[in-house]
Structure formats: C-alpha cells, structure tokens
Amino acid sequence: MRRLRRLFLAPGAVLLVLTLVAPLAIVCVYSLMTRGAYGGVERPFTLENYTRFWDPLYGAILWRSCWIAAVATALCLVLAFPLALFIARSGSRKNLYLSLVILPFWTSFLIRTYAWMFLLRDTGLINTVLQAVGVIHEPLPMLYNNGAVILGLVYGFLPFMVLPLYATLERMDPSLAEASADLGARPLQTLWRVTLPLCAPGIRAGSILVFVPCLGTYLTSDLLGGSKTILIGNLVQNQFTSARDWPFGAAASLALMAVAMVLLLAARRQGEEML
Amino acid sequence: MAGDAILELRGVSKRFGSHAAVTGLNLGVERGEFFSLLGPSGCGKTTTLRMIAGFETPDEGEIRLNGSRIEALPPYRRSVNTVFQNYALFPHLTVRGNVEFGLRRMGRTGVDAQVRMVLDQVQLADKASRMPSELSGGERQRVALARALALEPDVLLLDEPLSALDPQLRKQVRTELKDLQKRVGVTFLFITHDQEEALSISDRIAVMNRGAVEQVGTPEEVYRRPKTRFVASFLGAMNWIGGVGLRPEALRISREVDARSRRGVVAGSVFLGSMVHVEMRLENGETCTAQIPHDAAMFRTGESVHVCWNEADELRLPE
Questions:
Q1: pLDDT-derived band of residue A274, with 50, 70 and 90 as boundaries?
Q2: Per-residue confidence at A47, pLDDT binned at 50, 70, 90?
Q3: Chain B residue nearest residue A274, CA to CA
Q4: What ipTM was assigned to the predicted interfaces of this complex?
Q5: Pick from A207, A267, A268, B86: most CB atoms within 10 A?
Q6: Residue B1's pLDDT is what?
Q7: Which chain A residues are closer than 8 Å to B147 by Cβ?
Q8: Contact in structure between B39 and B45 (CB atoms under 8 Å)
C-alpha cells in the first residue's frame, strides 16, 4: 500500500522538483549574487539586491502593485457576486451560463488584451464613435493609465471570481434563505445576514485566485498601462530583459512571492477564525 | 366552520407545470389546536404548508390568517413561522444567534429576555453559545422550534419535524412536542405522512390525498369513521370483505358459524407480543388479517375456521 502510494506520487513529485523547487532555488541563489556586465550573474555574494528595495521608487512600485490588485479584486467581487447568484438560481440554464463565463478562455489572453487597446486608444472605436456623434471633440484619454490596467485585470480575471462564488452559492441549502424570510428578513437582509456570510469560503477562494495573479501581472500593465504604470511584474521582466540585472530581478520576484504568501496566510488565518 | 378559525384556506389551488399539486383545497384551523395535515408523499401537504408560509403563491383561492387575506404577502410579512424538515438552522450563527435572528429583523425589544425564555422552554438554556454543528439531532430540532416560537407566531408550521430523528427518539420528542404546544398555547399546523404520529399527537387531523382534503376530524373520528376508502386504508390496516371495510381488531376467529362470518383457512400468523396477527384466505379468494389477543385460542396454519365480526364495526364506504 505504502509503496503503491509512493509510486503514484512519484511523477507529480518529480515534476514539482524539476519545475518549481529547482528553479526557485536558482532564483534564490541569483538574488544573492552580483550582476554580470552583459546579463547573467557573477560572484561575490551580496545582500545588496534586497537593500535596494528601501529606495522609494521600488517601494512605490510594490505599493502600486498591491493597491491595483486589491481594487481589481474588489471590483471582481462586486461584479461576480450578483452574476454567480443569478447563475446559481437559473435552474436548468446554469450550464449554459457557466460556459458563457468560461467562453473568453477560448481566445488567448494576449489577443483579448490587444482588443481592449483597439477599443480604448485615442483612435479606437469608442473615441471615434463619440467624436463622430459629436459628444466629445478631443479623444478621451482612456488608455495608458491605472484605470485601463484595472479594467483589463477585472475583465481577465472575472471568471476566476465567478466560479468559486457560484460553487458555494449553488451548494447552499435554499431552505436557509427561506428560513431567513420566514423569520422576518427582507431580501436584502437575507443577502447580507445569511447568503453573504455563508458564501465566505467562495469569496476567500475567489479573492485569492484573482488577487495573486493580479499582483504579479505584467502583460496587462505593459499593454494597457504603458510606461506610466510600472508594476512589480514589469520590474521583474525589465531586469531580466532590457536592464540586464538578473540578481535584482530575482530579488524582486522573491519579494513579490513574499508579499503574496503573507497575504495568503492572513486570509487563511481569518478563514479559520470564521470557522 | 367554527367561528374561531385562526387560519382558513378556501378553494386553494397550485399547479407546477402540468402537475396539479393542490386542487381546490379547503381547510380551517382553530385557535390553539394541534392540527395535522396527514397524507402520503406527493399528496400536496408540503405545497399547502409552503403556500401558508409564503414560499409559494396559490394560483387560485384565498388564505386568511385572523380573518385577513395573506396569500399575496411575502413570507416576512406573515405572522406564521416554520420549523423546516431539515431544520434549516443558520450554520454560521450560534444557538442564540439563530433564536434572536427573527427578533432582531423584526426590531423587537427585550430580545435577550425573550431568547432566554424560549430557550428555557425547550431546555437549551445551557447550549446558547454552541454552534448548530455541535448539537445532536434532537437538540437541533429544539433550536428550530425555539427559533420559530421566539416570534410568537399566530400559527407555527411544522414540516415533518420528526422525520430526521431516529425512531427511538421520535416517540419521546412527539410527547415533548405535544406538551410544549399545550404549554405555549400556540396553534400548531403539523405536516406528516406517518399516521401513527398524526393519531397520537393531534387534536384534529385533515387527511389529504391527490391535492385535496378527504376528511377532517379528531383522531378517533377519522380512524373509526373514515368517510372514504382512502382515509380508511391510510389510517391503519384494513380488510375488505365483500366490499365492507373491517379493521383487523374488529375480526374474531371462531370454529363456529356466526351471524356475520365467512369461512376461511388460516394461512399463517405473526406473533407480536401482546397481539397475534392471523392471516386467512377466504373461500372466495379474498385474504384478511385478524388481530387477536395472544392468549386467545390458538389456530394452526391450514386449519379451517370462521372469521366473525359485529355489524357495528362494518365500514361501508364508496369506492
């Protein structure tokens, strides 16, 4: 039995070691070394890559990454909850609606983000139409700002919030909402006092699924945020490409991981307290 | 209908698609009584309860509570409360949180005192801080009762509240429920498919079949003087001898011919402690079961006997 278990676990373990543990170890080592003249890393070992984070410039980037991810997560939650509730209560059409939620995944995220650029830019569809109708005379600056990045993130990660919320709402015993109404609660009170608290596991799961990738995003911020909205993901990317500072890029990606881990642990602890 | 009806249903109908769940139902429940709706599953008793609670709206007919029509009101505006079949306790709230839920939503004053009182009534005062998941099945049932009684409803609706309990506990809780109802004086409308439960607990019973009430009466009336074959058969074992209904306990077995008797052969017997059920095959091919005291004369399987009864016990019912 024991041996059989090991046998079955082995492929997964090998994959994890090769693709997660080993690269992570390499990143850890890189983050403690000195940058090479043309990329790469050299000795001596140093902690300097980490002390550079005290520079307000990088602190601001980290802070901006956090609040943009937080706002995107909150917006996803506000948009996804009514949608998930609607789907969970639509009986036999549930599956149709669920597949509509997942439908965007059939197209590459990159292409969908480019589509937003075509919609939002100065000569894009929205500005052209508004100008043609005469509502505005100058194009609205809709692209290359924080708002565009948040829009892109909310659009891209909404399904990751809808699905766990749907899963908890769908499992919820409908007689609980009936009991609430029976005891005198109006629909909004039932939503606030019964449905939302019971949905907490789904809210937590969805928030983690949205917040963590938003925190590390670089594609959305690169395409929709332009040079003004640099997030920690872009910082990491830059260090490994144009800046050729691998050790600092490694340190930055580890800092990103640390922030994500701390927030995850905090969310989990709060979840345990609620249970 | 008596003048003191607290709850009245007149001509209530409800369809779900092509299925008629309730058809032209009439019912009157009097103030302070323990009233049971008894019927097999699918007879429309749960739909009836859900229409009274406000979870379903009738297609036709009216529902009056204290004389005012309520059939169009949402559940939160009706002075009835429900004990759900699965209790539907809020899992994220303590026992106290569950019981005070309604009082807080309705903006009542003296919440703490009221919560203490109803928890005392169901002997759960010491469990107020527990979560529902930490309670036994019987305790959860009592929390559900306390939660519904806390608002002092005009009518308390109970949807098979004993069906989730194990059989031993059921009989005990049945007595407790009856005692509680007498103590608090609230009108109970109790839904069940268990005839023994209904007979033992109710002041009056309405027997339902196929979406309508077939008979209303005290337990003794509906058992002894059923008006239809369905009521007769549903409320206990029934023999049909030549189209006449006879309860097993109305039959005697004798070796002699009697004024009202049939000749038959003993097909088998089941010993039930104080009673014996003797099955017989009659000459015309009909079978019947007699319930006789265990110390009555013994009859062997295959023995030729006479099944006898008194005219007073005959039930002549329309098909």
A1: low
A2: confident
A3: B92
A4: 0.85
A5: A207
A6: 44
A7: 183
A8: yes
Residues of chain A with C-beta less than 8 angstroms from the C-beta of B89: 179
How far apart CA A114 and CA A103 sit, in angstroms, is 17
* Contact residues on chain B for A182, CB-CB shorter than 8 A: 53-55, 75-76, 80-82, 148
Residue A266's pLDDT is 83
Contact residues on chain B for A200, CB-CB shorter than 8 A: 92
Phi and psi at residue A93, in whole multiples of 5°?
A: -90, 0
Mean pLDDT calculated for residue range A112-137 = 85
pLDDT band, very low/low/confident/very high, at A226 (cuts 50, 70, 90): confident
The CATH architecture assigned to B240-313 reads Beta Barrel (2.40)
Judge: A182–B106 Cβ closer than 8 Å, yes or no.
no
Task: Report pTM.
Answer: 0.81
Mean pLDDT (whole number) for B199-208: 95
Cα–Cα distance for residue pair A93/B101, rounded to 1 Å: 33
Check CB contact of B17 with chain A, cutoff 8 Å. no
> Domain coordinates of chain B in residue numbers?
5-230, 240-313
In chain B, what residues touch A173 (CB-CB under 8 Å)? Answer: 86, 88
Domain coverage including residue A236 = 56-267
pLDDT in tens, A107-116: 888 898 888 8
Asked whether residue A30 is assigned to any structural domain, the reply reads no
Q: Environment class of residue A8 by beta-carbon count within 10 Å: exposed (0-12), middle (13-18) or buried (19+)? A: exposed
Q: From the CB of residue A40, how many other CB atoms can be counted at a distance below 10 Å?
A: 12
| Closest chain B residue to A175, measured at CA | B88
Within an 8 Å CB–CB cutoff, is residue B105 touching chain A? yes
Please answer whether residues B280 and B288 qualify as being in contact, where contact means their C-beta atoms are separated by less than 8 angstroms: yes
Tens digit of each residue's pLDDT (9 = 90 or more) over B76-113: 999 999 999 999 999 999 999 999 999 999 988 889 99
pLDDT of residue B89: 96
- pLDDT bucket at B241, cuts 50 / 70 / 90: confident
Closest residue in chain A to residue B86, using alpha carbons only: A175
Half-sphere exposure in the Cβ direction for A264 (13 Å, CA) = 14
Residue A192's domain is classified under what CATH number? 1.10.3720.10
- Cβ neighbours of B105 in A, within 8 Å: 183-186, 189, 193
Q: Which residues of A touch B (CB under 8 A)?
A: 173, 175-176, 178-186, 189, 193-194, 197-198, 200, 274
Res A272 pLDDT > 60: yes
How many separate domains does chain A show?
1
C-alpha angle A106/A111/A115, rounded to 5°?
Answer: 115
In CATH, what number does B5-230 get? 3.40.50.300
The residue with greater pLDDT, A238 or B203, is B203
Give the length of chain B.
319
* Confidence bin at B166 (pLDDT 50/70/90): confident
Whether the CB-CB separation of A104 and A159 falls below 8 Å is answered with: yes
**B90 close contact with A: CB closer than 8 A:** yes
Contact call for residues B215 and B228 (beta carbons, < 8 A): yes
Quick check: A40 pLDDT over 90? no
Read off φ and ψ for residue A36, nearest 5 degrees. -85, 165
